[in-house]
Amino acid sequence: MDIRIFNNTEEIAAAASEIIISKVKSCPDAILGLATGASPVATYKKLIAAYEAGVISFKDVKTFNLDEYCSIPATDKNSYYTFMHENLFNFIDVLEENVHVPNGNPENAEEYCAAYDESIKNAGGIDIQVLGIGRNGHIGFNEPSDAFTAGTYKVKLTESTIEANKIYFESENDVPREAITMGVQSITNAKEIILIAEGKAKAQAIHDMIKGEVSPSCPASILQKHNNVHIFIDKDAASLL
Ligand code: PGA
Q: For 65-88, what is each residue's pLDDT tens digit?
């Protein structure tokens, strides 16, 4: 694991975006795995700045997002589809047809999820996956459980995740209880992974991911087994290491 501890959000974003920018420069049709949440926003701003400066183009890039809420439409202000457009896609030249955010309301979830994994595979697999981490060690919406998950699937969110996400909704009752998420196996199939975390609330999860045993009780701990992972964190998130 390439573990780097930075002073602030700006430094984390500079390091994370540098890896993505150099990948897109050397491989203009790179496949990017993207995440929502607060953690990657500053990195996305740097990607937008690099696009605006003419340093990179996303016109041949394909993107696959980790997850999407069920029970709200893609057009909802709290959907991850909306989040990605408002924080990245609307400001770069990626083609809408090359953008993939899971459909949170598929008719047949099982078939839809298998097809989502198949489209990642057919695209050639994810070159770089951007990840955040939950306070409970989740990646995507893979919550602590008894077994590591495989491909994309429909999941029930845990109370701690609902609690963490309620800041985005008017009331806790509005937070969706289910989501479509890439499974742990789909995530770790990525050739390279950049995990970003900041703040004391993430310190225990970061500790368990890096120093704990590899266990589905901390889904992110699986990253210990991946051969190309960058963990970019601030001093607070690193405080229990
Ligand atoms: P955050 O979420 O980036 O908003 O902290 C990360 C996650 O829960 O995976």
A: 999 999 999 999 999 999 999 999
- CA–CA gap between residue 221 and residue 30 (Å, rounded): 26
pLDDT of the residue at 137 = 96
Pocket residues: Cβ below 6 A from ligand 1: 37-39, 132-134, 138
Give the strand pairing for 67-69 and 178-181: antiparallel
Distance 42 CA to ligand 1 centre (A): 13
- Please, which pLDDT band fits residue 208 given cuts at 50, 70 and 90? very high
| CA of residue 161 to ligand 1 center, whole Å | 9
Sign of the Cα torsion 114, 119, 124, 127 reads negative
Q: Is 143 a catalytic residue?
A: yes
- Is 207 labeled as catalytic in the residue annotation? no
**What is the value of pTM for the model shown?**
0.96
Ligand 1 atom nearest to CA at 198: 5
Neighbours of 44 (CB within 10 A): 23
